[in-house]
Amino acid sequence: MSPDLELAADRSLLGRTSTVERLADILRSRIIEGYFAPGQRLAEDSIGSALGVSRNTLREAFRLLTHERLLVHELNRGVFVCKLTVDDLVDVYRVRKLVECGAVRGLDGRPPDVTDMAKSVSQGEQAMKAADWRALGTANMVFHQAVAALAGSPRVDELMRGVLAELRLHFHSMSDPRRFHEPYLERNREILKVIETGDGPAADRLLHKYLDDSEHQLVEAYRSAAG
């Protein structure tokens, strides 16, 4: 299905009154899901038509996402999905370690509600069986959003959505998405099992190593592509 048709399916999510924030949320979600690649130009006419919104509303949403470093406006050329650097990647992981590891470290020994995490692992298993590597990456994003949600903070949730959208742009650097995503599904299961026990320090150790390994793989992929 083409990106425009995918966006048309999102039109109902805008509700009766289109808001800039909701439109930005839809586009951000599509970036997290891997529908837009770094450097891709976002055509106002086709996106506005697909979602049934005015050009002014769409431009306001673009401005919000530009502020979040997901889009960039180039004079006389239009709006493009950002191309991120190794420094951007390292900074994204710095934030992830602070947020995600902090969220699990804060567990008080009581088993938390892990419904969303368990559901994302199940979705990842289905994606792997279907050899849908983009969907597997999306399931992984959902897992980590749920990890951050253990902090119980709407502000952390909002921050994490932006961080994960940036992270998804980095995934496009992986020449073999299966080789990158597949091993982390098993590690998600392992982290989930520990979180279910409420053992925050143990989950913190597993998650920190996980993030270190993922960061190293992506940095190496960037450097290889640049070399």
Strand line-up of the largest beta sheet? 1-3-2
Number of helices: 10
Please give the CATH class of the largest domain: Mainly Alpha
What's the number of extended β-strand segments? Answer: 3
Q: Classify the beta-strand content into a percent band.
A: under 5%
CATH architecture of the largest domain: Up-down Bundle
What's the gyration radius in Å?
18 Å
**Based on helices, strands and strand pairing, what is the structural class?**
mainly alpha
Mean pLDDT: 88
Order of helices and strands: HHEHHEEHHHHHH
CATH superfamily of the largest domain: GntR ligand-binding domain-like
- The shape is globular
Low-confidence stretches: none
CATH topology of the largest domain: Four Helix Bundle (Hemerythrin (Met), subunit A)
The main sheet comes to:
3 strands, antiparallel
- Return the domain count: 2
> N-to-C terminal Cα separation, in Å?
34 Å
